[in-house]
Amino acid sequence: MGKRNSQRKNAAMLDSDDDSSVSSSSTVLSDRSVLGTEEVKLDKDSLLDQALDASYEKRGTTREKALAAIIEAFNSNLQHQFVEKKFATLLHQCLNSIKRGSSKEISLASHALGLLALTVGCGDNAREILEESVPPLTLALKSRSDSSKISSLLECLAIVTFVGGNDQEETERSMQLMWQVVHPKLGSNVVAVKPSAIVITAMVSAWSFLLTTMDELKLNHKQWQESISYLSSLLDKDDRSVRIAAGEALVLIFETGSLEKCSAEAETASDGTREQSKPHEGYTHTLGLKGKVINQVKSLSAEAGGKGSAKKDLNSQRNLFRDILEFFEDGNCPEISMKIGGDSLQTSSWSQMIQLNFLKHFLGGGFVKHMQENEFLHDVFGFTPKRRYLPDNESRISGTEKRMFRSPNSALNKARTQLLNKQRMLSQGKNIGHYSVNRGDEEV
């Protein structure tokens, strides 16, 4: 009874106005700035606890505002101490919101769940997030009523798989779930619903993000041809964001060598011998697909722009497809140098660029904070700030655990080293990506 009274009290704090913007709830974490430093920290911790309590409330708007406050807290600081104490509670509250909430609540809960995964990094907690999340995320993705909700669910599935997935089968499962959002398996009583441009862009971007971690996606040559054909068809769509996402997915397929593997498989006869006398029909078709894509890329790299098209978006598209064309012609891969505070983060492949752009988009205003302090992201990008930004409770991690977390040769990271870091050996080039990471040094 006491707990319910406490929850109602906390809910009142977060639910001052049903019609107000959800973002207004986040101000509860910053309106006590007149206090001393220690008091501010204690106050923020207390407000985060209160927001978690408010997520139990029956009123949907109260839960939405609670989730918005939790998101801001996880963006502004890495909440290691809070997660250590309340991990299971926060996980299950996010999942409950995904199962029963409005579209708005589902979107917020999906984002909070992704932030939780990035905060805990590799380990048992990340595994638990992935295993517990896939069933409700799968169910929620089957309801295609709201584009922004589906986009948030796709991003969440990508993040929790990226962090918590230990083997290729788990990643392929998530990629297949994403693909089914735009290519559903239709039963006799199911009517196909045409996905919106927003959903297509989100699906292709999330799918590409996970493809960057794959050593070899287990698709036969027919499946690869279908995938490339679909992505090629997206290059002809009116929506520029769809074209950009499809372009990045296609160049990533070529960078990972998937097309060559597809061609080699297609060239192998059914009895396992190589057909030397004439090119296999599948191999010829695959080469034809590549030629078509290159012609589309040339056209998009020089597009004049249509009526009412935003100049910034048009320039982003031209720059992207010029770089893709350069990759096809010369084998050059993109090189990005970004300033994080006073430190330089560099990438030298399409895979890393896509990872960086996706995470920058997902983290939004929390990107710099996480890049400075998040050990998992340091490990992904091989990035070590010159000034160490340590979480408040870093001392609780033993020296052995730190080595396990950081070492690319540790048992914990052997698979991730192979899957995430192989692209660092690729050749260099230039590029601008889907979520607009600029050429040259960018001060963040």
UniProtKB/TrEMBL annotation:
Occurrences of domain Interferon-related developmental regulator N-terminal (ranges): 22-329
Membrane-crossing segments per the record: none
Ranges of biased composition (kind: Low complexity): 21-32
Region (Disordered): 1-32
Residue stretches making up the Interferon-related developmental regulator C-terminal domain: 374-428
Domain of life of the source: Eukaryota
Signal peptide limits: none
Family the UniProt entry places it in: Belongs to the IFRD family.
Listed name of the protein: Interferon-related developmental regulator 1
